[in-house]
Amino acid sequence: NAGVTQTPKFQVLKTGQSMTLQCAQDMNHEYMSWYRQDPGMGLRLIHYSVGAGITDQGEVPNGYNVSRSTTEDFPLRLLSAAPSQTSVYFCASRAGSALGQFFGPGTRLTVL
Amino acid sequence: GQQLNQSPQSMFIQEGEDVSMNCTSSSIFNTWLWYKQDPGEGPVLLIALYKAGELTSNGRLTAQFGITRKDSFLNISASIPSDVGIYFCAGLNYGGSQGNLIFGKGTKLSVKP
After folding, report:
1. Cβ B98–A105 below 8 Å, yes or no?
2. Which residue has the higher pLDDT, A70 or B3?
3. What is the mean pLDDT of chain A?
4. For every residue of A3-65, which 3-state class applies, written as one string?
5. Is the CB of residue A101 less than 8 Å away from at least one CB of chain B?
6. pLDDT at position B14, please?
């Protein structure tokens, strides 16, 4: 199994540009989520999904959209990038509500 | 909302020393998780605790789920240079959504050879 994969690993955007961060898992996990990690802030939840077709907002959802059309994929969209969205983004998945969560390697995003 | 207080924020220790870090919360959790993050990588799950009072080991790592369900600690014995990284605790409530997985802000560990 590849586990949780994320692409790209690095990205630089200009303010106002849009892009999609890709996340895929091959473990047939129901739960998937997106976090951002900023210095001194730990991991903050952006959006999550408890299964295909179901998504919900986390702690910091503004400026981000998600969709979950398949169990495997959970892309994160930035519609109009802002410098405040400069961060490291992690996708994660887990099999059930009570189980440990597995993280992808991260996408380092810089918005100029 | 729920918050986790993780301490210490950072530690500088000598190789071979034991390390202890902990997380406390004002709320009850049903599961405690401990992660390690190496530079440039995603967090990796080290230990998961599912029952109050549970003590679980993974090699030189030992973690405990506090009896009150409001705290957990992680010990590392005989530290080595590859233990360097950021350690995160996370608390989880059963039946909840992803929104109920709460992370501490991390303990940054540095080990001098």
Report:
1. no
2. A70
3. 92
4. CEEEECCEEEECCCCCEEEEEEECCCCCEEEEEEEECCCEEEEEEEEEECCEEEECCCCCCEE
5. yes
6. 96
CA distances, B35 to each of A20, A87, B38 (Å): 27, 20, 10
Residue A50 is nearest to which of B92, B97, B104, comparing CB atoms? B97
Please state, in angstroms and as integers, the Cα–Cα distance from residue B57 to each residue in A44, A99, B87, B88, B111, following that order.
28, 17, 16, 17, 21
Nearest chain B Cα distance for residue A18, angstroms:
24
What is the tens place of the pLDDT at every residue in A24-47? 999 999 999 999 999 877 889 899
Summarised one tens digit per residue, pLDDT across range B59-83 is 999 999 999 999 999 999 999 999 9
Residues of A in contact with B42 (CB under 8 A): 4, 90, 92, 103-106
Higher-pLDDT residue of B99 and B46 is B46
> Helices (H), strands (E): how many in chain B?
0, 11
